[in-house]
Amino acid sequence: MAILVPSPTRIANMxxxxxxxxxxxxxxxxxxxxxxxxxxxxYEFSRNQTLEGxxxxxxxxxxxxxxxxxxxxxxxxxxxxxxxxxxxxxxxxENPTGTVEGQTGRWISDFSTPEVRGDAIPFEVETxxxxxxxxxxxxxxxxxxxxxxxxxxxxxxxxxxxEAFSRALGSHIAFTLTGKLALATALANSFQTLCLLLRLPxxxxxxxxxxxxxxxxxxxxxxxxxxx
Length: 228
Description:
4 helices; disordered C terminus; alpha+beta; 6 strands; 2 domains; three-stranded antiparallel beta sheet
């Protein structure tokens, strides 16, 4: 049996089903109806909101970042990089050399990244000095970024993503179509809960790693401290 590809129109109809709409749409792109118009209004926003909610493997890229023409802030970061044009959210930096100038301690850069490591590279995202484009700041030279990109191919979406996406879209169209704020809130809450459940194993892994680090740190401290 062939796997059913979740087209944008089908995802929109799933969102309409979540809000209890009796009508469905035939085409998200050009249909003239209240349902189609409100779905078009919120479709892209809801898709990117869902992409941001978890480190989906079908929307993940790894690239070596390009140096920015503007210098990083003095005394704060060593390097400024260009923010990828298709980046929805930067997840983490990977270090090809294994060393980072000035890095101490243990860092977690993104709780939604499946491969959370205790030595994750610290970085920040902020606008460049012109205030017109985003940039990535870090102390890592030749940094490689793992990020979620704006994946438009619905044929690659997982069933869980489609479920979360349709609920996010439903939460944004619910009040317009039904006038029920409680329904919109309930769908928004269900979307947030689903994202949290997806990230729970990552959070648990992070907590175990942190606990091991703290245990080692306390052990080292107790072994070296001799009160006078």
